[in-house]
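Quick illustration, no need to memorize.
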Amino acid sequence: MPRPEKYVSRSDLGWGASGASYANPKKGLVVHYDGSNQNLAAKDHSACIAYWKNTRKFHTGPARGWADLGYSFGACPHSYVFEGRGLYKYQAAQGTTPGNRDYYSVTLMCGPSDEITDAQVNAVRQLREWLMEPATSIAGTVKGHRDFVSTSCPGDKLYRMVRDGVFSQPAVWGGGVPDLSRPIAKPKPTPKWENPAKGTIPGPRHDFPLPKGHVFWRKTAPNWSVSGHYHRVFKGRSAREWLKEFGAQLARRGWSVGKGKTYLRRYGNDGLFGPEYEDLVEAFQRAQGLDQDGRIGPATWTEAFHRPVT
């Protein structure tokens, strides 16, 4: 999944890299608000840019003296996600050391009685899905600031939305916005393999099924490339079945794989190697520290079926 569709980076704002300390938050995303009403939903988007710049000036000024703007990101009423400290940075927003170290933060740039737009909610949902990608791989948990310290933040209205799972629903991509007037369906119980415990190896322990020198890859490559597009059988299963099993194994390891999901989004896990499979394989190889050649060879297969989840 790419980063949010309407993304305002630090460079867009004329800022350099954040001077905040390194961190690698994994536990989720924390929602914040402003203590006073801003009425940004009724203003031009330029007001949101000015608000974000002024917030940074306040946080780095004498009143706070922080290394940078306190939040990881901001979400404005016009569906934009603003970069604050950004990725891999220690926070100054949650109020506790574990909270600032282990969670990303997002403020909705609104006050207690400001309008929270559908586009704004969708921006947070897109941000959450992006942060759940393997490169950063946070848990999907969404909390409110008051879950860490005694505070009114993020306000009663936003906190109800956090507790009701509004921000944990799937994002709309392609320029649309969700219809928040419709009730949110209760989530189905999550299969255990979708959130595998660290140190475990979910699923079966299949050894690499292809002969020496062969890999799963494109159908246009020579005979050593097995794509699933032709009926070839290895160790009692067709090549297509083995490719499906590989995709299923990554899903067991917690990857978002399948039709409509992050990887194999268009055609699903159909066992036919193409650009979507190659993107999935390269992302998995990158996450595991392997050479990113997009091919499923013995090393990549072993990481999927025999290495514990980290």
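The first helix runs from residue 45 to 60.
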